[in-house]
């Protein structure tokens, strides 16, 4: 906002709702549109002002749909992989000169904006399955009218919105059924639920994965501390892929993007070149310190995502792996607890920090568990799990117990209250 000289005011200011665009006085109410995020509670003062004064408002996905969705609407959806896929696919289209409109929920290391309205008929959007707004429990992606769908994975998540597995899967089933007959679904053949759901598709399906029944098959994945390399086979064509980003699971995401871009008519040489120059996304196995001790930051906030990250680190680092893990709200629900079994087996030590306070529905009987309970749950299948609810004590424990070649990884969607920065500073001294 500073870069674009947009005034902003931290906190809540109902009196500024109609004055935010001009310092010279109030704007005409008909020119004002308020975008309401999930963070706004029913008692939020700005929200109450908007309702009282009948000011036009939209949920975040409604606003995205209004301004970003184009004739050729690509949506990247899935329990995991959607941010990485939407970012890389947007980058490939940009590098190919197609000027797409796009939006993804991350910060690209290549310094492209996280959202852009282009001049072409292409749009690429990250399709989140989380609820659209406080008044609309439907998935965000239902607003994006996809003509092209990249579906990476389906595994029950967000138990705070989808209390049963079937309710979660139903959201994706409705998504695939919404693709028009002349549309395209690019789906991961390695995910059992995706394979089940795409049977409902009424358009062309292209599959990718590490299995022989896929149209785009990736193989020979090699992971080092410097990056990733692997092969993609499509029919009689073979392509060598190299990238700086970490995570052998990213081979799957990259192959999905390759398949979608290729099916949209982009030449393979341009796709390969874009993949090689792509630097990844902040908080996706982001290396915060590389020395005798390596520190990573990753947004993995569910047991399944944490498992994938830890398996990657275990494959390339020889020292101990210490994981500091904080789940999102949905993965603190009692219904999600069986998913923690054996998810941290690639970590030598697991630390649960003070958990961020979450808003709870007074009518919801399934209250989120606390840090002590989460520690007990993980300890059922892991020998070394600690609950340290004091940040200073947690950092002291890591510093006192670190050894050369150890790998420390922070896993979670919250910010860890500046602990990562403090740890990096201490380890550099």
From TrEMBL:
Entry superkingdom: Bacteria
One Pfam family linked to the record: Mur_ligase_C
Family annotation (InterPro entries): Mur-like_cat_sf, Mur_ligase_C, Mur_ligase_C_dom_sf, Mur_ligase_cen, MurCDEF_pg_biosynth
Mur ligase central domain location: 77-261
SUPFAM superfamilies, per the entry: MurD-like peptide ligases, catalytic domain, MurD-like peptide ligases, peptide-binding domain
Gene3D superfamilies named in the record: Mur ligase, C-terminal domain (3.90.190.20), Mur-like, catalytic domain (3.40.1190.10)
Origin species: Candidatus Magasanikbacteria bacterium RIFOXYA1_FULL_40_8
Residue stretches making up the Mur ligase C-terminal domain: 283-413
Record field: transmembrane: none
Protein name, UniProt field: UDP-N-acetylmuramate:L-alanyl-gamma-D-glutamyl-meso-diaminopimelate ligase
A GO term for molecular function: ATP binding
